[in-house]
């Protein structure tokens, strides 16, 4: 490991005696570095400086902001191997997946460097002939974010890039479990020329303490959160007192539906990608499978064969496809869901074993029914419960029977069915004959208790801008 990886690990390290936060490799249970736990007074200082930096940044032409963001993008790409290595060491995902996340994360910086130049307002035909009306878009000011451990880079760039492009400053609290990736991309932003007070990472042993400051501070005008629905809902309440704008990217419970006219091999490929990426620890992971009667056995047989071929291990080793779960609590939860499903009547068609350390064998459960707890739970692990269905109408009711509404997937070769089903699914995103749907040009986000706001796409920058209406009278 050279350049950025070394630099980050060394810079971030402040020693175990300094009230530091230890960062642990989940594959080996060893400490790989430390980051400082900032005092709350330090975080208040960061916000003060960020406010000053934001005004100067917003005053610069969009083209200048775009140029610095482009340079940041280039440096992330140039350092992608090192960044991927840092991510695998602190998060556990296989190295190829980590590299994929770095490229995906960088794509938001590139996209929003371009969008910075396109924050158009409107001219509006006036109702009287002595007025002229127009709108302009302006940055909201200081923006803050709280991000999770499952995508340590992309969940930050998906917010930071549109915020900076819009002319905001941006303060993030990355997850304490995976902060090194965050510090590494921030270091690259500084190397690109982005001012230090404009983009800052802050951590404290108590995430609640940081959340309290972000939600209550009058100078923070926007909070963007990615994480669980439970914490998101709490943060919305906390932001109410200062009437802060919020965006919430929360939990999911994605149905993955295989109709009788589906290409079964493609459906199995999509199921593997959607379910087992990041060991099942993504908000858009297929969480429950619905397979139609006549193709049920064929799908299950092929799915079992494909899952049996997945290589589990330390993500830093070549060829590994499934890494460890993030911590012992996550493992305990996942094994608990398997045990509970078995007690409620499920059959283990493949897997189900505790592989030691933080590793769980990829698992397929059959004989699942809609009333089982696992169907309503965000599993966040490598477990695929499969439900049999016969009619489309019954299927839609079951697929929508969840508090969540983030991603959904289905496989069919019938055009009528594709439109009909896509329109009826109560989810923010629908993959049709596709198991991987996220990219920088499309709007990512949910409905119901999966949250609100959109990231990426032409909509993403609007989350960090306010519309100002100008009325020219006396003309
Ligand atoms: P989490 O427990 O909600 O934590 C997310 C972040 O919030 C972490 O930085 C955490 O800090 C912080 N946090 C926890 N409690 C807090 C509080 N009371 N006040 C302020 N901050 C607090 O979620 P997670 O387990 O890390 O992530 C998994 C969840 O994220 C899943 O539900 C998943 O679906 C969701 N997710 C959603 C999306 C999306 O785009 N919709 C994307 C990825 C993940 P520490 O961990 O450092 O304590």
Strand content: 15-25%
CATH architecture of the largest domain: 3-Layer(aba) Sandwich
Query: Which small-molecule ligands are present, each listed once?
Result: NADP nicotinamide-adenine-dinucleotide phosphate
Biggest β-sheet strands, sense, barrel: 7 strands, mixed
What strand line-up does the widest sheet have?
12-13-14-11-10-15-16
CATH topological fold name of the largest domain = Aldehyde Dehydrogenase, Chain A, domain 1
Question: Count of helical segments?
Answer: 15
Q: Span from first to last CA?
A: 66 Å
- On the 0-100 scale, what is the average pLDDT? 96
Query: In terms of per-residue confidence, which ranges show pLDDT below 50 for 5 or more consecutive residues?
Result: 1-11
**Residue share in helix:** 40-55%
Radius of gyration from CA coordinates: 23 Å
* CATH homologous superfamily designation of the largest domain: Aldehyde Dehydrogenase, Chain A, domain 1
User: What structural category arises from helix and sheet content?
Assistant: alpha/beta
Overall CATH class of the largest domain: Alpha Beta
Describe the protein's architecture and organization.
The termini are far apart. Helix 5 (95-115) runs parallel beside helix 6 (154-166) and helix 10 (264-276) crosses helix 11 (293-308). The protein is α/β, with parallel strands linked by helices. 41% of the residues lie in helices and 20% in strands. It is globular, with a radius of gyration of 23 Å. The longest helix is centred in the N-terminal third of the chain and has 21 residues, at 95-115. It folds into 2 domains: 3-250 and 450-471, Aldehyde Dehydrogenase, Chain A, domain 1, CATH 3.40.605.10; 254-439, 3-Layer(aba) Sandwich (Aldehyde Dehydrogenase, Chain A, domain 2), CATH 3.40.309.10. NADP nicotinamide-adenine-dinucleotide phosphate binds at residues 146-151, 155, 173, 175-177, 207-208, 211, 226-228, 231, 234, 249-252, 283, 378, 406, 446. It comes from Vibrio albus.
């Amino acid at each position: 490991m050279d350049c950025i990886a070394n630099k980050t690990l060394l810079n971030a390290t402040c020693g175990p005696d300094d009230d530091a936060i230890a960062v642990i490799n989940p594959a080996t249970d060893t400490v790989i570095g430390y980051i400082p736990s900032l005092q709350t007074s330090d975080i208040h200082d960061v916000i003060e400086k960020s406010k000053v930096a934001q005004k100067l940044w917003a005053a610069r032409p969009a083209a200048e902001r775009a140029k610095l963001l482009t340079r940041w993008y280039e440096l992330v790409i140039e350092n992608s191997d090192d960044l991927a290595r840092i991510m695998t060491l602190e998060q556990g995902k296989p190295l190829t997946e980590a590299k994929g996340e770095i490229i995906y994360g960088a794509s938001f910086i590139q996209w929003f460097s371009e969008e910075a130049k396109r924050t158009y307002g409107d001219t509006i035909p006036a109702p009287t002939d002595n007025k002229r009306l127009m709108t302009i878009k302006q940055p909201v000011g200081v923006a803050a974010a709280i991000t999770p451990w499952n995508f340590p880079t992309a969940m930050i760039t998906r917010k930071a890039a549109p915020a900076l492009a819009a002319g905001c400053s941006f303060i993030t609290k990355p997850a304490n479990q995976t902060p090194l990736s965050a510090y590494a991309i921030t270091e690259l932003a500084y190397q690109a020329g982005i001012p230090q007070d404009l983009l800052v990472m802050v951590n404290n042993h108590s995430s609640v303490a940081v959340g309290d400051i972000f939600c209550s501070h009058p100078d923070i005008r926007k909070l963007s959160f990615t994480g669980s629905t439970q914490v998101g809902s709490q943060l919305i309440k906390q932001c109410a007192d200062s009437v802060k704008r919020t965006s919430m990217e929360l939990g999911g419970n994605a149905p993955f539906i295989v109709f009788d006219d589906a290409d079964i091999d493609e459906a199995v490929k999509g199921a593997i990608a959607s379910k087992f990426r990041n060991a099942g620890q993504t908000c858009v992971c297929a969480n429950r499978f619905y397979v139609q009667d006549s193709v049920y056995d064929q799908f299950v047989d092929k799915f079992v064969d494909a899952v049996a071929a997945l290589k589990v291990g330390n993500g830093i080793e070549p060829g590994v496809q499934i890494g460890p779960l993030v911590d012992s609590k996550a493992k305990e939860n996942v094994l608990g869901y398997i045990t509970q499903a078995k007690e409620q009547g499920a059959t283990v068609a493949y897997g189900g074993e505790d592989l030691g350390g933080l590793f769980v064998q990829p698992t397929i459960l059959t004989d699942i029914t809609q009333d089982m707890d696992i169907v309503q739970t965000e599993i966040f692990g490598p477990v695929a419960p499969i439900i049999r269905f016969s009619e489309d109408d019954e299927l839609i009711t079951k697929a929508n029977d969840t508090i969540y509404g983030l991603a959904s997937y289905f496989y069919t070769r019938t055009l009528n069915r594709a439109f009909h089903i896509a329109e009826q699914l109560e989810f923010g995103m629908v993959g049709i004959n596709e198991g991987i749907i996220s990219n920088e040009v499309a709007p990512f986000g949910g409905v119901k208790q999966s949250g609100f706001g959109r990231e990426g796409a032409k909509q993403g920058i609007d989350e960090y801008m306010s519309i100002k209406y100008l009325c020219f009278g006396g003309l």
